[in-house]
Amino acid sequence: MTNFTLLPDPASPLARESAAQAFADILDGKVAEPEIERFLIDLSVRGETSIEIAEAARAMRARLIPISAPEGAIDVCGTGGDGHHTLNVSTAVSLVVAAAGVPVAKHGNRAASSKSGAADTLEALGLDLDRAGARAEESLNELGIAFLFAQAHHPSLARIGPLRRRIGRRTIFNLMGPLANPAHVRRQLIGIARPDYAPIYAEALEQLGVDSAAIVSGEEGLDELSTEHASVVVSIGSSGLPKRITPEDAGLPRHPLVAIRGGGPEYNALALHHLLEGEPGPYRDAVLLNAAAALVIAGEASDLRAGAEEAAETIDKGLAKALLACWIAF
């Protein structure tokens, strides 16, 4: 077993080579669990640097089970852990954006801190996760959407999950999901729950390489664009988004965050079903705002207002609903 006392003190920023070796050893099972636990807690208390985040992501990317994706594919994903327990916005956005013609490689998992994760809600809608996973590459290329179930693509994390639950606090692995997409997408809309941390996270993503991406965070600590408050935006590459976004920028009204509070998988699935049927309200507006940003990043819309209009049309024409039905039957 590797002993982390041989590495630089985790209370001080790790050099790139040290960080790369540390996360490689963790994922390869070369480090005893007590040492991993101490290491991750120390990093969390001190605050992870962009180099450490990037090297942890590189280590995960090197060990994942990949799929190929069409040119221009995007992922819309949040880091989670914001504590607001909202409906599944990024899952709905993925359906809308894919139905608008942009391939979406949706990376996600079951709920960790929320009541219903992307996997839970999609399963409640009728998607067979095993079949969808086995045919992810086909569905992405033929339908323009795929769900990349994190636990199926990251076997190296199997021993880390129980340890993370035992630690019971945020660690660097809470930040990894959007940075380790198995389709290696180069366009991303990533939500994080810490507005002040967006620049550091963006630096990490820039080190990993993307064509067009944005890190967004609602000012209330929401891991997506907010329809109650303004949101912080840090763009990378050619995203084309402003540094601060309000609902009004997309021609949308504001709503209190409690209006999109979610529940369990069945509750969230029903809300998503009503959304795809064209039901107006706060959930629809949250989806339109975030879909608008994704469409701008993908080069499908010129600005947020145009993106929101295209997203609304996609829903109202029944295209997103039809895509979900085809996906379930695929």
UniProtKB/TrEMBL annotation:
Cofactor: how bound: Binds 2 magnesium ions per monomer.
Catalytic activity: N-(5-phospho-beta-D-ribosyl)anthranilate + diphosphate = 5-phospho-alpha-D-ribose 1-diphosphate + anthranilate
Keyword Nucleotide-binding annotated: no
Residues that, per the record, bind Mg(2+) 2: D223, E224
GO cellular component: cytosol
Matching InterPro entries: Anthranilate_Pribosyl_Tfrase (IPR005940), Glycosyl_Trfase_fam3 (IPR000312), Glycosyl_Trfase_fam3_N_dom (IPR017459), Glycosyl_Trfase_fam3_N_dom_sf (IPR036320), Nuc_phospho_transferase (IPR035902)
Binding residue positions for 5-phospho-alpha-D-ribose 1-diphosphate: 78, 81-82, 86, 88-91, 106-114, 118
Gene3D superfamilies linked to this entry: Nucleoside phosphorylase/phosphoribosyltransferase catalytic domain, Transferase, Pyrimidine Nucleoside Phosphorylase, Chain C
Binding positions for Mg(2+) 1 per the UniProt entry: S90, E224
Protein family per UniProt: In the C-terminal section; belongs to the anthranilate phosphoribosyltransferase family.
Name listed for the protein in its UniProt record: Anthranilate phosphoribosyltransferase
